[in-house]
Amino acid sequence: MLHTINSFLLPLLLILSSFESIESSASPDTRNVKIGGAKPPNLKLLECFEFKKNYWIVGHAFHTSSVQFKDECLRMCLTSSIRKAKCLSAMHVPNDDECVISDQNQVTKPDLFIENDTPGSFTVNFFRNICVDPPDSEGANRFEARLQGYKGGEGIIEFAQTSGRNTQVMVVISGLKENSLYEVALLPGGSGEKGGKCHKKARVDGEEKTIMTLETDHTGMAVEPWRNMDLDIFEENVVGLTAIVVENSSRTIVDCGPIRLASSSSSNSSSTQVSSSEKSEILFFSTGLSLILSVFLIM
């Protein structure tokens, strides 16, 4: 009997230990997955991108950096919009821990969208940013609120509405408390005030109109892909309002910004303007990429 029990328990213990090993070795970007309920923050991040393996855009990088995980690269792409540098695509090279973000994609530059013909040597993961424009962008009126917080947080809230259709909203905010809940609300007050009315008060007092709840990931970033909302930006006259971000537990206002007309229209129809130093970086990256391709072709 004892021998039978031991023969049953030993495989069970081995299985349990293997599960513990897998959980402990998981990357930070794959641990905060919820079962049921709302989607975890990292999945909302992925919803903003369309993936294609072993493709890249040649010659239009405006920023490169060293990152370990692909999610870090995707966050860099989305947060570039906060600084008015539209990222249309991101490329992650896991072999080199390299992230390249570009102001072009396969729609704007199809002739420069090429396949990596040496996948056995290295892998390129291509991600098209589909949150740069709303799904129904044709003829839509665009508004935005660029958020700044006294605690260092920053972000952007974008609104788009076509006549006769629901308003679409998209949010990207960074620099918040990690794994926390926040509310996005509209606050009465003229957009002509420097910094918006929210900088004159520490907490909400009931005059705000909450439009959504956000959850931050382990880096303190919150993403809400384009979604329809029961909000008419024409009836609400949003240009006369201020967007605020409120910490759910303390009811403290942490970020705010006046709502204004969007600074540019559809990003897929225009290229981001870059400085002379950024052009030099683009030229350097393009030359380096061409050399790499030449070496692999010779090999």
Describe this structure in words.
The protein is α+β, with helices and mostly antiparallel strands. It has two domains: 41-132 and 274-298, Hepatocyte Growth Factor (3-Layer(bba) Sandwich), CATH 3.50.4; 141-265, Superoxide dismutase, copper/zinc binding domain (Immunoglobulin-like), CATH 2.60.40. The chain is 21% helix and 32% strand. The chain contains four helices and 15 strands. The termini are far apart. Mean pLDDT is 77; it is low at 1-6, 8-37, 191-197 and 265-299. Pfam families: PAN_1. InterPro entries: Pan_app. Residues 1-24 form the signal peptide. It comes from Caenorhabditis nigoni. Keywords: Signal.
Structure summarized in a few sentences:
The chain is α+β, with helices and mostly antiparallel strands.
Mean pLDDT across all residues, rounded? 77
Topology as H/E string? Answer: HHEEEHEEEEEEEEEEEEH
Residue fraction in strands: 25-35%
CATH homologous superfamily assignment of the largest domain? Superoxide dismutase, copper/zinc binding domain
**Outline, from the CA principal axes?**
globular
| CATH architectural category of the largest domain | Sandwich
**Could you give the order of strands across the largest sheet?**
12-11-14-15-8-9-10-13
Characterize the biggest β-sheet.
Answer: 8 strands, antiparallel
Report the helical percentage. 10-25%
Query: Whole-Å distance between the termini?
Result: 63 Å
How many helices? The count is 4
Give the C-alpha Rg: 23 Å
In total, the number of strands is: 15
